[in-house]
Amino acid sequence: MTEHTPETASDAIALAALESSGAGWWRILDPRTAWWSPGMYALFGLRPEDGMPTIEELYRLYHPDDSNLAARSLMRMFNTDEPITLRYRAVLPSGEVRQHLSWGRREQPDVEGRRWLVGMVMDVTDHVDDETLIDGERAFRFVADHTSDMVVRMRVGAGLTYVSPASRTVLGYSPSEMIGKAPADLVAPEDVVRIRGLLADRIRRGETVSTDGYEYRGIHKDGHQVWLEANPRLVINGAGEMTEIVDVVRDITARKQAEAELHAARIEAEAASRAKSEFLANMSHELRTPLTSILGFSRLIGAGGGLSEGDKGYLDLIRSAGETLLTVVNDILDFSKLEAGALTLDPEPFSIAALGEGATALLREQADHKGLELTCEVADDVRLTGDVTRLRQVLLNLLSNAVKFTDAGAVRLVLSAEDDGDGSAVLVASVTDTGCGLDPAQIEQMFDRFTQADGSVSRKFGGTGLGLAISRRLMDIMGGKIGASSDGATGSTFWFRVPLTLAADAVAQPSEAPGGGLDRPLRVLLAEDNPANRTLVAALLGAMDVALDMVDNGEDAVRAVSTTAYDLILMDMQMPVMDGPAATRAIRALGDDTPVVALTANVLPEQIEQCRAAGMQGHVAKPIDPRALMAALSDYARPAQEKAAAA
User: Fold this and answer.
1) Angstrom distance (rounded) from CA 638 to CA 647
2) Phi (first) and psi of residue 350, to 5 degrees
C-alpha cells in the first residue's frame, strides 16, 4: 500500500496522544493508499523501516479464524457512516497471539472530496478476562478430547498445531509427537498429490466447507497403512489464501476391509455363478446332442410302421425315457434362470383356444396310450396378450402331471377369460383328473422345489419335483396365482389365474389348420458336425420337397454360400474349424442375406441372443421337434431365385 502521512498539526497532536496510550492510529483511503502510526507497527510486531504491509500481508497477520471477519468489517466501513468496533486476534511474526480491539469509521469528505477511513487499534490482551478468552477454545478441546475421531489443526508453514488424544488409536502417535509435523509426512505418498489437488480446487472455488470428504491411506507409527476418511474445513484469509485447516479424521480401515471382503465375495459369487452357468450350458448341450438322435430316430422308426407290437412297446419306452430326460434338463435350466432372476417375459397376442388345443395336442398320444380321455373346453375364445410360451409351459406341466398320475378315466382342461374392464382380463385355467388324488395337507408343499407328494412318487413315476415350483415362480412373475384342491381319493384339480390384457383384436378369428407340407421347393444348406444329426435332418426333410446340401463346419458353409444360392441355412452353433456365429458373420460380410436359423443344443437365453447378434433370424432347439423345423422352413425360407435376382 502507498503510505500517507498526517496533514495537520491537530493530526500530529492526536497521534501523540494515541501513542502515549499504547494505541496505534491508521488511516485508509482505498486498498492501495493508507497510513500507519508507529504504534501500529509495534502492535503487529513489525518495523516501520520495512514499510507498510501489503493488503495480502496484512490479512496474514490476522488469526486464521478472524481474517474473514476483519476483511468484512473493513469493507463495511467503506459503505456506512456508523462507527465499527471489532475484536480480533493478531498473530505476530514470533508466533505470539495477541488480542486487539479496533475502532474505525468513515470521515466526512475532505477539501478534495475524499472520504478517509480513520481508526485506532489497542492491545487488550492483558485486560480481557482469561475465562472469556478461552471459553471457545475450552469447548473445542472438550469435544476434541472426547471423540474417537482424531481432530487436528494445521497452520500453513507451521505444520500441525493441535492433535487430539485419539491420535494414539488412529495413528499410534501421541499428540506431542505429531505437533509440528507436516500432514503430508503422515499420508501414503501415492495419495498426497491427489489430496493436494482436491484442496487446491476447493481454495480456487473459495469453498471452506464441503459436503464431500475424501478417503486416503495414512501411515501408522509402526509403518503399516491405515485407511482414513477426512473432510477438512479450510480457513481462507481475505487475500484468498488458505492459512489453516481444521479436520476430523476417522479410521475406516475396518470398513474398507469389510468392503474388500464383500467385493471379493461378490467376485467369488459371480465366478461361481459363471461356472454354474457354464456347467449348465455344457450339460444341456452334451445331453441334448445324443437326445436329438434318440428322440428323432425313435419317432422316425415309429412312424415308419412294420414293427411288431413288442418292438413298438420297446420303442415307446426308448422315446418315453428320452422325453423324460429332456424334461429334467429343461426343468433344471428353467429353475436356474428363475433363481438367478434372468427370466424375462415376452408378451404377444394369442388365442386362448389355440393355447389349450395346442397344449392338449402335445399330450394326446400319451393320454391315448394310457386309454385316458383328454379334453379341452373353452367357454368363449378371445385373444389376450401375454407370454404364451410360459403360459403353455405351465399348462403342459399341469396336464402332464395329470396324465402321469391318472391310470384310468379322464383329464379335463377348462379355459376362460374374465373381463375386468379397462382392456384387462384374467385368464382362468383348471386341469381336473380322475387320478389317485392328493393329501390336502401336502398340497401347499408340492409347490416347493424338489418336492413330491411322497417318496414313493419319485420311485414310481420319476421326475425332479421342479415342475410345480417352476409353475408357481412363473405365475409370481406374471402376477398370477396357482393352487390345487383334492379330497385325497377321487382325483385333483390344479388351477391358475393370471391377469393379462385384451389383444387389439380381442375376438379370435377362426384359424386355419397348419399345413402338412411346403408350398414350394426349397434348397437348404445344413451346417452340422454331428453325423447322426445330419442323418436325422436328412431323414426328416426327405419326405419334403427340399434339396439338402450338408457340410460339417462353418468354413465349408461360408464356401458353399459363396457359390450356391440357398433359400435357408440351418446352422449349428458349436462346430470345428469355424463355429456357427462366426460363419454367420462371415456370410453377412459377403453381402449375403440368406436367412440363417440356428439348429442347436445351445438353448440358454444368452446363447439365443448370441445367435441373433451374429445375424441369424431364428432358433430351433435340439432335440429337434419336427413341427418346429417345419415352422422354420415355412417362416424364414427366402426363394433362392429372389436372392439371385437381387444380386
Assistant:
1) 14
2) -155, 160
Among 172-186, 203-217, 346-360, whose mean pLDDT is lowest? 203-217
| Residue type at 600 in one-letter notation | T
Q: Is the dihedral of CA 523, 598, 357, 512 positive or negative?
A: negative
Q: Which amino acid is at 306?
A: G
Of residues 66, 57, 242, the one with CA closest to residue 154: 242
Q: DSSP label at 187?
A: B
pLDDT for position 515: 43
- Indicate the pTM of the whole model: 0.50
The predicted-structure confidence for 460-491, as pLDDT tens digits, reads as follows: 444 556 788 888 988 998 999 999 998 887 88
In 388-489, where does DSSP find H-type helix? 388-404, 455-461, 467-478
CA neighbor of 65 nearest in space, from 225, 188, 237: 237
Give CA–CA dist 232/154, Å, rounded: 10
- C-alpha angle 245/250/254, rounded to 5°? 155
- DSSP letter (8 states) at residue 365: H
- Cβ–Cβ under 8 Å, residues 392 and 404: no
**Could you please report the per-residue DSSP string of 74-87?**
HHHHTT-SS-EEEE
Dump strand ranges (E) for 344-478. 348-351, 373-378, 382-386, 410-421, 424-433
Q: 53 near 40, Cβ under 8 Å? A: no
Rounded to whole angstroms, the Cα distance separating 90 from 454 reads 89
> What is the DSSP pairing of strand 410-421 with strand 373-378?
parallel
- Residue (of 596, 581, 413) closest to 494 by Cα position: 413
Does an H or E element contain 493, and which?
strand 492-507
If you write DSSP's letter for every residue of 573-641 in order, what string do you get?
Answer: SS-SSS-HHHHHHHHHHTT----EEEEES--SHHHHHHHHHHT--EEEESSPPHHHHHHHHHHH---HH
- Give which of 626, 624, 628 is closest to 294, Cα–Cα: 624
